[in-house]
Design goal:
homodimer, 162 residues, Elongation Factor Tu (Ef-tu), domain 3, 6-stranded antiparallel barrel, two-stranded antiparallel sheet, 2 helices, 8 strands, 28% strand
Chain lengths: 162, 162
């Protein structure tokens, strides 16, 4: 496998949000994604989709955190550690975050979205439309995941922060 | 916005597949993802999920293709060009591919998956479990997307190649 050390990711934009950590965690945050002017044309037609995948660079993750390979799901110590690829933790070798958001509005190079669990100032790497093929029928998830689901109250959606 | 030129992506593994281009396109390919031994522990528990997001580096995209900002959806010239962020085209500033796959089996550091539209030798950047929050209820997509959907026959799922 050839090394990809030469790969440079270029942020296409940045997250602007004043949402509380609680709102970020619970998928109730409203945020703006401001796309660089040079990429603005790439947004044409995006308003036809109600939901998007946002890929972002989790810039607050430290080098040592990227080395972690097993975590307690959402920091719940009573749950056995799982491999990072079996969770959505921010600790992973490549700090790419992935979240499905609702697209509220596009105005020029600014998108208003709901449900993004990314901090103010987070570099955005890519946007992709969510389409019916992404909406699976029958799926299954492990018992620990269901346990965490039961813990949640009233939150209409969830996030991968904390 | 600070430049991220120093970001280095490290492949966590590689795609191995003998599937035909047709199978890749139609979501019917069976592929292996071989994870580097050093990251193998990160897979622990992944078998509890039936489906995964695979993030991969579309290494065949050229520098000039990355500059493209509008494309005819899936090369259909009769459809008006859309911004690349409104499509799943491989032409985009950061060549990160995203596909939902069915996890067939984990054996050591090798995953067998179904539905991955990535070529043999594609570097894999991340794996994330698909969970019920990723399965949206009501969504909408533009008219051109529905037109393409009607074109498809018999394919149980779809891909973002060609």
């Amino acid at each position: 496998m050839k090394p990809l050390n030469a790969i440079r990711l270029e942020p296409i934009g940045v997250v602007q949000t004043k949402a509380s950590l609680d709102d970020l965690k619970h998928g109730t945050a409203t945020s703006k994604i401001v796309i660089k002017k040079e990429f603005s044309k790439g947004l044409d037609g995006i308003g036809g989709f109600s939901h998007l995948f946002v890929l972002f660079w989790m810039h607050k993750t430290s080098a040592s955190e990227k080395m972690i390979l097993k975590v307690h799901p959402r920091h719940r110590l009573y749950l056995p550690k799982q491999g990072v690829f079996a969770t959505r933790t921010q600790f992973r070798p490549n700090s790419i975050g992935l979240t499905v958001v609702k697209l509220v509005r596009r105005a020029g190079n600014t998108l208003t979205v709901k449900g993004l669990d990314a901090y103010e100032g987070t570099p955005v790497l890519d946007l992709k439309p969510y389409d019916p093929w992404d909406r699976l029928g029958k799926i299954h998830v492990p018992a620990w995941w269901k346990k965490l689901e039961k813990e949640k109250e009233r939150n209409e959606s969830a996030s991968h922060i904390g």
